[in-house]
Fold this protein.
Amino acid sequence: MKKFIRHIASVLPLLALLAACEESDVRMPAPSAADYIVFGRPEINLDATVGDFAGKPSSRATLATSVDEFTVWGYCVPDNVSGGGKNEAGALIDWNDKSKFFTNTTKNGGADLDNLANVTVRPSDNNYNFGQLTSWNTRTDALYSFIGAAGNATFSMERSSAATSGGHGPRLTVTLPTAGNAVTTPLVRADQPDVLVAAKFDHKKSNGTVVMSFMHIMTGLRFKFHNHSSKDLIIKSMTFRGQFHKQAVIDFTTDDPVITVPTGATNNRYSGTFTIIENTPSAWQTITHGSEDFAGGDTPAILLLLPNPDGTTDKDGKYVLGSNKSIDITYRFADDPADRADRTFTTPDDFVLNYLPQPNTLHTAHFNFIGDNFVLTFQADEVKNWENGSDNKFTIM
């Protein structure tokens, strides 16, 4: 079984505050990871891919110092195949062989470690609070697996069945809070959540502190203008409208998780228009002739969208970033008073990409102005230079 993550420096959990103390007061010594399940500061792995959330260890340069909290589901002792209690000997079995036997439907995905939920990090002292402490299994070689989720979204864990999946293990459903029923519905780009997931399989007590390595399930889009004309351009407004994916389902039956994005029901998508550049004089951008600049300037505007890993580059309804998409730009020339009338550029409705953006990646839409029109190309960024995509507690590292 491959190791899912490389450990970084351990940090200890937060114990209960003394009765009359403020948050800043001195705390009692934290418990030892040799006795209890203790979580360390999480990592963010920018090299993770679908099915391999943390195949390559993240570096200290991508340490997720701003991740304040996450939810975790813990698994160790599976249920008996015939029902009627737990299979204690199954604690020694690796995840791929026991994941389908966490069958208690009254719990989230059959998780058997009840006290692991809503892990909270305190950035000031690197302590964590995950409720009542959970002791390690008495078997030294017991194997634990943990699934984590973070971000401003709804997380629901259930056990897969033959009717819902090819596997029978835990299945995490992630639902974005974004709402909109028409492409004319205004949507706030800065409110798009940055959602992350993590998994750590077959962890032993002797491995010590549990460090979760998270990956973004969203795709980041930024936009760049290239002015190849002989005149200066003023970009007055830019919007991105369409029908976008709202829900992702992640199957953890094996240590190669599978992400799918349901596309059938209306509650699996939302519609609206994101404003990339606001049509106010203070927000207008001037792109001088022969120059280039990101929408948003020195702080590029980044739009986070949930991609469909099963999408295609054809107009077959399996759109990677959503359907009925269109980008609208209002612009004018700056130099000649006769050319100061507003002009518009609109991409073809339901444009498709010539490649498939994946989760945990950043991409740039390049608008090359040649003559009197724009030529649009999308490009994956080799340098994973994520910028903040939301105003929640999570930072894209």
Summary: Helices lie at 95-98. The first strand starts at residue 43 and ends at 44.
